[in-house]
């Protein structure tokens, strides 16, 4: 799964002049399902003041959607741009469970539990085995 990069952005990058706003637009337009999932996790975090994180736990509706989410969260550049844009730290389990933590919560017990091997193991289920 590749990003759909407009010629103008490619030209900017070749000159060494690409900024987060340009890159975020490419990500949003190229990976709409991933954008929707991250936005939902951020919205959930914002809607629950005082909650340590917001999350999205709905399995992707298709393999294409799953690929978009994996691409966005596995790429350091894409994930970092999303985190900067939304002002969160993203955490990821399986093929669908995405959490948005406030940066100050990264040292919290909830964050440490979410990203721990224990948290990963407890989030397993047979129907998600191939995700």
Automatic annotation (TrEMBL):
Q: Which domain of life is it from?
A: Bacteria
Q: Which Pfam families match?
A: KH_NucS_shadow (PF20704)
Question: Mind telling me what this protein is named?
Answer: SCO5389 family protein
């Amino acid at each position: 799964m590749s990003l759909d990069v407009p010629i103008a952005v490619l030209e900017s990058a070749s000159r060494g002049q690409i900024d987060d706003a340009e890159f975020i637009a490419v990500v949003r337009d190229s990976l709409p399902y991933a954008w929707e999932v991250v936005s939902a996790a951020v919205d959930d975090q914002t809607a629950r003041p005082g909650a340590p994180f917001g999350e999205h736990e709905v399995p992707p509706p298709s393999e294409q959607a799953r690929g978009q989410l994996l691409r966005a969260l596995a790429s350091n550049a894409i994930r970092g741009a999303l985190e900067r844009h939304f002002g969160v730290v993203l955490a990821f389990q399986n093929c669908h469970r995405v959490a948005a933590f406030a940066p100050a919560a990264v040292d919290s017990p909830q964050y440490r539990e979410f990203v721990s091997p224990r948290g990963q193991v407890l989030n397993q289920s047979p129907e998600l085995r191939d995700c």
